[in-house]
Write a structure and sequence with these properties.
Length: about 450
């Protein structure tokens, strides 16, 4: 940029001086053309007399030559100076060309113009006009020094700023690398503090969000493993205790043995249900999806309720339905069976004697809505946000008595999310709880 600025300034000075020198040279040439038919060494005094009458100002040197290049006038007697143009430039002027020479040397501008002198169509000589300007050259040199100093200062400042930026960047990168090492070693609660509003600070915030999510996921995983171990250990302990009681007591009565064996069968069935649900959750977590089909929700609900009606009748409950035809969901039959089965089974298990369960299906605004209402005791408001968590039970004793594992609603939630649906739960005004599931209506 500095070089460009100096070039432009120098060219502007040359252009302004060139125009002035050209005018002066043409002015002199025109007067010589009027006064002479030719030049010769015998007319030196006459040429000097003509030149003395001309008002030529603002130039350093004027030289007049004849057609052979011999000097017939020199205003400063500097024609033999080293700055004087070579003879070849004068020969070009004799051929009718205008020769313009620019020079910036030792802090001085110099512009020279060689103009042919033509009389009656014949070139009789040439006029050489030179102007030197050391004042503007000194100004240009001063500007050059000033710009150089500014450039050096800017360069040093830039180097320092770049060094500071690189140091700050590397320091923050090291913080992030160290944080990654800590998280890799299992320190999921590790956080980093990066000041600023740039991309590195944003990266630090995202890293902290990631570690927080990892910490929560790790806590959920540990709790899940602990709860799963407990759920599996309890029926296994019961089975072992009952079997040991049978084996160690030789005088045990037959009826007691039958009772113990029946209890072992119940615990084994509970163990089977729990492991089956754990496998279902594992499949959902692994994003293993079977081939999707157009599931008729009315048929899926009816088929599932046929399996659950005996359970409802055994508990003295009334199971009613209101199903609209033509409600299709793009999913799998097994997935929709899991959703309906778990929702209705929960509504039956945790209902009051003589109560009822109502299942309704409708299509509304391109949405399939499945609603399950029961007349049970409901759920405390503070527990509602957690009923879909794995192994979460509001009343653990009552849930265990009903045979619940705390996995049914978790399976429903994961299945609904897998097919981009929504699920809500809230207590009904008349008692009990209402769970509503919605999917996009498939119209293909």
């Amino acid at each position: 940029m500095n070089t460009y600025f100096l070039w432009v300034s120098r060219d502007m000075i040359f252009s302004s001086k060139q125009l002035f020198i050209q005018v002066q040279a043409q002015f002199i040439a025109s007067h010589l053309e009027e006064a002479f038919d030719s030049f010769s060494v015998y007319e030196l005094d006459r040429v000097s007399a003509v030149m003395s009458q001309l008002d030529v100002a603002g130039v350093t040197n004027i030289v007049v030559t004849d057609s052979n290049g011999a000097i017939v006038y020199d205003s400063t007697n500097r024609a033999q100076h080293e700055d004087f143009p070579a003879y070849g430039y004068f020969r070009r002027a004799m051929d009718g060309w205008y020769v313009i020479l620019h020079q910036f040397d030792e802090g001085s501008f110099a512009v020279s113009v060689i103009t042919p002198v033509v009389s009656r169509g014949t070139t009789i000589g040439a006029v050489y006009v030179r102007d030197e300007d050391p004042e503007q050259g000194a100004v240009m040199l001063e500007m050059q020094v000033t710009l150089r100093n500014i450039s050096i200062g800017v360069a040093l400042f830039s180097v320092v700023m770049v060094a500071l930026i690189v140091w700050s960047l590397m320091r923050r990168v090291k913080l992030i690398v160290e944080a990654i090492k800590q998280v890799r070693e299992g320190q999921y609660s590790y956080h980093i503090e990066i000041q600023g509003n740039d991309e590195m600070a944003l990266l630090g915030d995202e890293f902290n969000s990631l570690t927080e999510r990892l910490r929560e996921t790790e806590e959920v995983r540990r709790r899940f493993v602990a709860d799963a171990s407990h759920e599996l250990k309890t029926p296994l302990a019961s089975i072992r205790l009952l079997s040991d009681s049978i084996l160690q007591n030789e005088d045990i009565e037959r009826e007691t043995v039958k009772e113990f064996v029946s209890d072992i069968g119940m615990e084994a069935e509970r163990l089977s249900r729990t492991t089956g649900k754990l496998m279902t959750l594992t499949r959902l977590d692994s994003d293993i999806v079977d081939e999707l089909t157009n599931v008729d929700m009315a048929e899926a609900v009816e088929a599932t309720l046929r399996m659950l009606r005996p359970l409802a009748e055994n508990r003295g409950l009334t199971l009613t339905t209101d199903l609209r035809e033509g409600c299709f969901v793009h999913a799998t039959d097994d997935a929709m069976h899991q959703v309906v089965y778990n929702l209705v089974e929960n509504a039956i298990k945790y209902n009051k004697p003589g109560g009822s369960v109502a299942v309704r299906l409708k299509c509304e605004d391109s949405t399939v809505i499945l609603t399950v209402d029961d007349t049970g005791v409901g759920v405390p408001e503070e527990d509602l946000p957690y009923i879909f968590d794995r192994f979460y039970r509001v009343d653990k004793a009552r849930s265990r008595e009903a045979g619940g594992s705390g996995l049914g609603l978790a399976i429903v939630l994961d299945t609904v999310r897998e097919f981009h649906g929504k699920i809500t739960a809230h207590n009904r005004v008349g008692g009990g709880i209402r769970i509503q599931v919605s999917f996009g209506l498939f119209e293909g």
